[in-house]
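Revision sheet: structure tokens.
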Amino acid sequence: MGTIKRIFVDGFKSLKELKGFELNALNVIIGANGAGKSNFIQIFKMLLAMSKGAFQHFIKMNGGADAFPYLGLKETPVINIGFEFTSNSINSSGSNFYRFTMSPTISEDMLLTEERKYKDFNWRSYGSPSLESRLAEQKNECSSDGQWNGVGFFVYDAISKWMVYHFHDSSSTAPMRRSEIVEDCMVLRDDGGNIAPFLLNLRDNYTDYYEKIRNAVKLVIPFFDDFSLDIIPMGEAQKVKLTWKQKGTSYPMQPYHFSDGSIRFICLATALLQPNPPTTIVIDEPELGLHPEAIHILAELIILAAKRTQVIIATQSPMLLDNFSIDDIIVAKRQQGTTTLEHLKEEDYKVWLEDYSVGELWSHDIIHGGTIYE
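Predicted:
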């Protein structure tokens, strides 16, 4: 499946309306606190939950059905969301489409009505309204006449394989610092909880990518030499944790020897340099807790990742912004309860860029997007 070309939103939280908002290979979203960046990212989390049959659980865990309509249920009785995907099929050009409506019920559940569309053909329904998405049910769709070319599979494949990473919990009890079974190694979890078995699999089967990750970590943690990733028998299970080697000593270093910023960077580098990246990578505030030098290296990894897959980053860091071009940036603004998104154009800031960096333009509110008091 190709990348997300456009997204359509009508009435989702503070996003009153997005009419075919375009997404590029690299998308860096900036905005003040409360501007609506997180609401936009939550759409991707929700779709991922839908593809796994966990839509109602997602709704309940995020405030219930009444928490989603723009300005409440009376103002927005139905929420509409849609995606246009570019096709990467050798035998096909054009786009595939997927759209759905979300309708809160009296019992405070949320009903879904879904449709998909292939190129210039008519829209097809996934069936009657349901409490859970039918994305997975239609993943093997392929009409006998070949007209649909498995669009149900293409849509499911794109959504189920994107990932919203959130590596903020690096506390002493965080999953990324604990042991995990070696079999949990195929897909890096959104919280990095299986980082150790995932790296072990890369070391054994994807040596080049493992070395890229190791070298990136060494740039940020100069005393780091390599991961040990020793397998520990625990009853019938075999587990591994993020053990590692420090330069100049044979002392076995443990996950708790990593600082919060160090272990977060390890997870970020692994996510961005993995051999088979998600169809879309979404990360909210990846710079959290990182040293300024690490932020610049992180930006390089983000740019490299965007050459292999679609990347969406939300940030408030001027230092991170300094590494991107104006054309990569999307500004989220909120006024009178409504969030708008706007792509920036380098031609509009050409004169300013002669004397200021992109981060400085943001810090000095030349790129307008600061707090608006209502």
